Each structure stands twice: as C-alpha cells, then as structure tokens.
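So, can you check these tokens?
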Amino acid sequence: MQRIDVAKALPLFVLLSYQSYNGMMGTFFSRSLGSEHPIWSANSKTTTKTTTHHHHKEEPQQIIGTIPSCFISIAIAFTVVTLRMFVAHNMKWGEFKIDEDIGDVGTIHEYLMLVPEFFCIVAEELVVRCYLLPLMMMHYTTGQAIALSGCIWSLYTVPMALLLGKGDFESTWSGHRLFLSAILTSYPCSWVAIKAGYVCWGPSLLHFVSKTIGAFALGSMETKEVGIVRGEPWKTNGLSSIIAGVPFALFTTFELNTLSHI
C-alpha cells in the first residue's frame, strides 16, 4: 500500500464529519453499504432528477442487486485490463513475457497488504461514487455528472500523486495524463455505482481488481515495476488506460442515457 492510497482515503473523514453535523450519517451509510437495496434481484426504481431549469422529471432506473453488481464489476475489470494489454501490445509499447516464477506464491505480508489497500479504495468510492456522483446527477446529465465528479476528485488525487508518488510521475505531461486517465476510468465505476443504487461494493471491487490486475499485467506507474507486458509503465499502464477508457466512457454514457430508459 502506497502513501497515495492513504491520502485518497482521508476525504472520507471530512465527509463523515459533514454528514454527522447534518444528522445524515445513518442514512448515508445505510444507502452506501447496501442495507436499503436488494442483495440478489434487480428492481425498478423511479428517481427524481432536477434539470438546469429547476424542473423535476421522473426517470426509471434499474437497480442491480449488490452481489450481481460485484460479479459484473470483476468481469468488467478483467475486460478492461485485457483490452489495455491488447492496446499496449499492438501499439508496440511492450512485449509479452512471463517469467518462470510467475506462479510463485507471494509472502503473507504481500497478501495482507492488499486488505488495507482495498479499504482505502472503499473509502475513496464512498466519497466519489456514493456521495459526489449522486449529488452531480441531481443537477446534470449522466455524462456531465460522471465527468464532473471525476474532474473534482482528480483535482485532489492528481496533485497528491505528483507530490507523494515515487514512480513514473516526473513530468508535467504526467499530470495531464493522470488527470485524463482518472476521468476516463471513472466511467465504468460510475456505471456500476448508478446501476447498483450507489452502493459502494461494486465500484470498489471494480477499482481494486482493475488496479491490482492492471499493475500485475501492465506494470505499476507508482513503483515502475514492469508487468507481463514488458515496457515503460507510463505507456503500458498509463496511455493504454486512456485509449481503452474512451470506448467504455462512450458506451456507459450511451447505455445510461438511452438503453436504461427503453
């Protein structure tokens, strides 16, 4: 677990203080942890959305059960990483190379460190996908809300990555790349969050699995360690995430705006 992971979790304490001050902490946790939503089956839910002219309109929303959303999130994570590997290989940014010790069991410490890293990601998703995103959805279109929530969060996380990161974050272009990547990669997580009724577990699993498997397959920009696709991590992991993120952003926006309401 890196220092940046801890830094990303810190805004949760500010949010909880704010929710406690307003007497909304119980409601927030009840919705975000999934106690108000179905575990398995999906159901239809009508939501009220405020337009820019302060008119209210009712929109149908299909809520996916918490457990199915987790399985869908894992499938999306593997799909995204596979697409990024395909992009990196075909752009000749790296070559596939599997070491003989690829199947060796890691140390207990390495596996245990994944636990606090996962909960740091849960803390991040509680802020972005369970609070900021639904707040944006009340006032903007779906695509705008996802982009704005990603932008606002990136304004905090990108400077933190540049200040605290020890890896592939040396140049100004690194900041631009991280900012764009953070916005584009927020679309799959936001799609799962909206479909799951803003419950944190699906987006958190998608975020965690894609980050963990992505670093294993494409290398880590934070540590500069190479992955199965051997090359410069800022290309194999960074640029590939931007290119692969564009079709996912277009599809999720189209699906949420069109197919969900048919």
User: Anything to note?
Assistant: The chain is about 65% helix and 10% strand. The beta strands are 43-50, 56-63, 94-96, 229-231.
